Amino acid sequence: MWPTAKELRSLCDNSPRAHRELRSLYERLWSGVLGLELRQVIDPVLDYKDYAMTIVSPGLDEPDAPLRFGQFAADFLRQVTDTLAESQLPLLAGQSVELDNYQRYRNCLLERFEKSPMDFALLMRDCLIREQCIFQQFSSTDQPLPADDDCGPPASKQIRLQSDARRDNIALKMLLETGIDSEAPRLQELTSSIRSTCDTLLERLSVRAKLKFVGKGVYESELAQLARDAQDTLESLQRLRDCQLLSADEAAVTGMRLLASCLVMNSQSDRVIKKGKAKYELRLRHLCPHYLSQRLLTLRVAVLTEELMQSLETLNQEQLEKLHSESGLESRSGQCRSSASGEVVLKMKFTSLPRETSHSGGGVCHQKFALVAFTELDSNEFRLPDGALSLALCCSQPVVFIDSQKPAATVTVLHDSLAALPGRLGFETELVKSANDVNKPPSLNKSLCDFVFACLKHAKDFCPKLWSEGLVFGFASKAAAASKLLCQPNYPIGSFLLRFSETTSYLSVTWKRSDSHVEALEPFSPEELKSSKLEQLLAGKAKLRYLVKPDGSHQAKDIALRPLLQSGWSQRGRASLDGYVPRAVLDQDDESIITESDMSALQLGGIAEEVTLRELMGQDDSDG
């Protein structure tokens, strides 16, 4: 039976260490939303229809699983509503702060449950299992959990209870050594249990791959336990295949899925380290180091162009295999040597990588490129009946970096060669996001806030007129800018737009060279803009003819830039110390100026909604 919230609260009162473990568990799984206050609301739901055993059973792939989770969600929502109305809110009515927090936590839980009941139930299952381990550990003694690097036999009682894979593996080994008949009920029961354990383990690996990293701590401890369970399950599958209790096809597919999942789950921490000029070191981490070390064939590293980087996530299996075998890309391969910690190190040297290039203004533009690692897995134990290798191709995320700066990992793509065989189900393309939980950050080596502030600083220092007049397209990627120019047939040849570079945060130009080709110019460096105004640089480029504005309209460059090149703008000082130039509303005689700050003052006075633009400019409606 799972511990109730009351039992957990009593344990926390008696054991500070248990309290810290539970708080860390809730923070890691639920981002602090679920706590003991709301945990007691879930207890009646778990007891009702024995839901606690339902959501932890290994039948998540059964056809009625979505229906079970949907019913679980409905019962949970009803129980939360009834509990809040009857007991919780009156108890907290005299404490406004606790009441606000309770309502906020409750709303977060309801929102998460309504969005995806199945994901919520999977998290609840892991939470219950870990709660039970903590409760059993600290209810008898106040000892810390096993160390993160403890890869030996589990010593504590709760670890033995948790590791069904270890128990089944030992029992299967003992039965096979005694020469028991393959039709024995005990052996059939173990086979069924190992299948269920393998399915549950694959689901847990998938859940862990989607969770964010929150430091080492308990997460590393759970990784160590998952590694031990995976290794025991792989050994059990091999024994079942040898004694023909599992078919060769089932053993090959299941074994390779488990092997590749152990590698992919932790590939979010892959990294490239620059050791010197053109020398790089790629480090990969994975689970089951002792089992995988002899089954990792090679790491093949290729240099990707920027176009391939943009489309890597959408490549299908045939395109990926072509990319893997294409000789035009510079690549290196070498045998993998795994350490006891599960880290694979591959040293490589590239002599013809894209180099830094200088443009007319003397500034340096860092070329953007990526290294992608193809990890080939092979296992002799899980060969197909025809002798073909069951190969899993793991395409590690493109590790993008600029010169010697730190890389930013984005995605991992996994393919299985068994998927191409007729009548067999292999892997589908699986994307594992990075720890930042973003697809493609605007800046490849900076946070989003750093990127935005760098763009605003560049606009304030070098192009306040263009920015204040709304002529800059803004924070659009290179691909989005190209799509904007090509998808609109009314944009003539020579149309261009202004955008901030994703890598440098400098202002860049993307222009339409032909009906089917778009070209991005090198960003304007601060050195160029200090010697010449940006408006003058744009006016001097004859191939740029029509300026595309953010609202979608386009205008001849000379007409669009004419107000910015007039002397009136240069004579007028900056409106404030921070360099921001507000949009100005000018009359025909250029005598009165009403800025955005004046408009804000009028709005605060409550009259801006009734005043027309002509009245703000000091003219009468009767003037005609």
From TrEMBL:
Q: Which UniProt keywords apply?
A: SH2 domain
Judging by the UniProt lineage, the source's domain of life is Eukaryota
UniProt-listed InterPro entries: SH2_dom_sf, STAT
Asked if Membrane is a keyword of the record, the answer is no
| MF (Gene Ontology) | DNA-binding transcription factor activity
What GO biological process term is on the record, naming one?
signal transduction
UniProt key word Lipid metabolism: no
Q: What is this protein called?
A: SH2 domain-containing protein
Q: Supply the source organism for this entry.
A: Macrostomum lignano
